[in-house]
Amino acid sequence: MVNIQTDTVVPDHIVWSLFNTLFFNTCCLGFVAFAYSVKSRVRKMVGDVIGAQSYASTAKCLNIWAVVLGIIMTIGLIVLLVLVLPGVIQTVMHNRGF
Fold first, then answer.
1. Which pLDDT tens digit goes with each residue over 42-56?
2. pTM
3. Most Cβ neighbours (<10 Å): which of 47, 69, 81, 88?
């Protein structure tokens, strides 16, 4: 007798989505990914494996975009502060006569 296990493991990426919601919520992508992760978990609990995989795939894609855009925006902000802030400070000091 052969037992076939029909229970498929579907990652719902809920921890990753929560992290992105708290730290890399660029354009609310982290929050939307969290919503899709919750939907994936609900579908998995109901027994709809195909629906759970679909929602999990969307959550994964949104999480990837949230991380990429969050890193780009963080690097851009650091570069902007390093390049612009010294010029602004110099202009303010020059205008005040220091």
1. 999 998 999 999 999
2. 0.79
3. 69
